[in-house]
Amino acid sequence: MAKDEACQSFKSFDALAVAKALDSGSLPLTDHLDCSGSLLAEAVKQVGPRSVKVEVQTPLGDRLGSGSGAFVGKDGTSVITNFHVVNNAPVTRIRTASGEVFNARIKDVDEVNDLAVLEVEGLKKDPGRSIEFGDESKLKPGDALFSVGHPAGSIEKVATEGSFREAAPYLLQFRPQVGRQIVNSAMDFVIKHPEFQKEAEERVMSHKLGTSTPLWKGNSGGPVVDNTFKLMGLATAMDTIHGESNVVTPASLAKDLMNRPVRQFEFKYERPSEFQKDPISTGVATGLVLGAAYAFRRVAAPALGTFDALSAYENFSTAARDDLYAPRSTYLKEGALDTIGAIGGAMSLFARSRGLGLVLVGGRLLTRAATQFMPGDPVMTGVSRTNGDSRPPLGFDF
Which fold has domain 3-268+380-385? Predict the structure, then answer.
């Protein structure tokens, strides 16, 4: 194997970078090219394909925030993350190591331990994609822990390394100054929402793992693994004053949520079309595009055919990749439709075949326009407890 093939390229940051970021608000990431086979580089190699970026948006596509997560489950089609990453988010998507983006629905949550299981749409089943769970109870102070995630909104994987400190209640993982902030935040919340007093108290004292592994905003929900690259927990919170004491939710609690015999929450979703979301803008834009394409069809057809040719190339190139998370047929189907439009564009250049070419280009354009009126991405419209309790899930983040 060539030396460069054995090297691992990734981004990272350390405690000093966190200290600077606490002052400036911007986290400096460092590019690494590791050819020595370090444990951190191996963590990126082993865990990177099993971790995801979790993106939350409004129904109209406005960004609300992002976090991290990891593939779990027997089919590799579920993702575990922190509940506060997806709480109150109408639209949830996950971005994989391949760059593919998939819609996701919240399947169930653990409101006290800040965990959520997502069901991802459009993935091909792959049990080997799921991260392997470890036993965090065997950790000893000083044992190495590695995080892999997407802090600061990074598209690329970012890895950090540190060590395990101790298992203790959430409140006791921080210095007294931070602990007082947590208590005050909880008290303010309970004053406004006394019906959640029990859950708030349980969250403050929930079981957590303390680590020196550097974390930043956006790491939440991402996998934290040991030196065998088994899941020890999910990155959950950072020390926002000193940046030294960071908190991980144990993997055993995530496993308990996944293995619940009965869901505690039912999340409701609808699939509104783009037209239903914004009928005026969508209708006008679609009408203008179709009208202009017809009025200037002699010029528009070749241009649209060129666009379809480029799109076909992209889809067929994607289908040929070995790192896909979606079925290959997804891209082959789109590539075939694009090819029809590309052929039509070429045929429209010649008088003898222009009529058929215009039909092919127009047909492809209509199939694209039709998607604006078909059921779209899943949008969360409500949530209820399965036991009949009328309260929503505990909706606050420390």
Answer: Thrombin, subunit H (2.40.10)
Residue 37 contacts by C-beta under 8 Å, 6 or more apart in sequence?
6
Q: Are 150 and 67 in contact (CB under 8 A)?
A: yes
Enter the pTM of the model: 0.92
Instruction: Answer yes or no: is pLDDT of 398 > 70.
Output: no
Q: Identify the pLDDT of residue 5.
A: 56
Q: What is the pLDDT of residue 248?
A: 98
- Three-state SS at 53: strand
The answer to whether 60 and 91 have CB atoms below 8 angstroms apart is: no
- Token code pair at residue 225: 């693994």
Each residue of 343-382: pLDDT tens digit? 999 999 999 999 999 999 999 999 999 999 999 999 999 9
Q: For residue 298, with 0-12 CB atoms within 10 Å meaning exposed, 13-18 middle and 19 or more buried, which class applies?
A: exposed
Residue 54 near residue 221, CB atoms below 8 Å: yes
In this structure, what token pair is assigned to residue 134?
């470890």
For residue 193, report the phi and psi dihedrals to the nearest 5 degrees.
-135, 70
Tokens 């194997």 found at: 1
Helix (H/G/I), strand (E/B), else coil: 349 = coil
Pairwise CA distance, residues 34 & 43, whole Å: 12
Candidates 217, 223, 222, 212; CA nearest to 247 is 212
Looking at residue 397, its pLDDT comes to 39
| Spans of all domains in the chain | 3-268+380-385, 274-373
Cβ contact 99:48 at 8 Å: no
The DSSP call for residue 305 is H
Strand extents, DSSP E, 27-131:
30-34, 51-57, 63-72, 78-81, 91-95, 101-110, 115-120
Is the confidence at residue 28, as pLDDT, over 50?
Answer: yes
Q: Distance (Å, rounded) from C-alpha 385 to C-alpha 266?
A: 6
- N- to C-terminal Cα separation, the chain: 48
Closest to 100 (Cα-Cα) out of 78, 114, 120: 120
Decide: residue 168, CB within 10 A, 0-12 exposed, 13-18 middle, 19+ buried. Answer: middle
At 355, list the tokens.
């009529």
Nearest-angstrom CA–CA distance, 377 and 103: 7
